Amino acid sequence: MNSNNSSPESTASLMVAARSFLEDNNDNDENALLLLSSRVLLYNGIPCNIVSCRLGRFKHGELIEFVCSEYFNKNQSHVFRLGQNKEIEVPIVTIKTYQLLLIDQDGYLSLLDESNGTTREDIKLPKNDKDLTSELQLSYNLDNSLNVQVAQIMGIEGVISFNQTNDD
């Protein structure tokens, strides 16, 4: 994971009504539609994937209960409740694909941006997603040609997935 505030979009977020997360929401708000497609929100300033959300009656009335896992640390999860009209911060998520050139001894990745020919070496293997890290290292060790997807949210970057390239 890497903190990188190189562009204004890297720290951008939107405020959206909590009800926008509900599957049966009829809001045609552009921000709500973006939210439903990304399924990412900020919980105490931490980017989180929405695992589930449901409308329910609780001690303090009708609330939306969110269950979410941290975007860059799948092992951390949170449960919280909000009123339907409360606003919640939704980060702008950008995902970029790089060609993996090298994994060094310290776990840093050498990545090629094929769109402009530049390389970067400031992204590390994910330390909080052991499955992704071990699968990526195994594929790399088998001499597979790989593309790595790097997400940027609120100035934080990290590897979220990878796939084998087609060298046809």
Shape: elongated
Radius of gyration: 18 Å
First CA to last CA: what distance?
A: 32 Å
Level-2 CATH architecture of the largest domain: Roll
CATH topology category name of the largest domain: SH3 type barrels
Order of helices and strands, N to C?
EEHEEEEEEEEHEE
Uncertain segments: 4-9
Q: What structural class should be given to the helix and strand makeup?
A: mainly beta
Could you tell me the strand content as a percent range?
Answer: over 45%
User: How many separate structural domains?
Assistant: 2
Strand order of the largest sheet: 1-12-11-8-9-10
- Proportion of residues in helical segments: 10-25%
Provide a concise account of the structure shown.
This protein has 168 residues and is mostly beta strands. Helix content is 12%, strand content 54%. The protein has two helices and twelve strands.
Report on the architecture of this protein:
Helix content is 12%, strand content 54%. It has 168 residues and is mainly beta. It has two domains: 9-92, SH3 type barrels, CATH 2.30.30; 94-164, Nucleic acid-binding proteins (OB fold (Dihydrolipoamide Acetyltransferase, E2P)). The longest helix has 12 residues, at 130-141. GO terms for molecular function: ribosome binding; RNA binding; translation elongation factor activity.
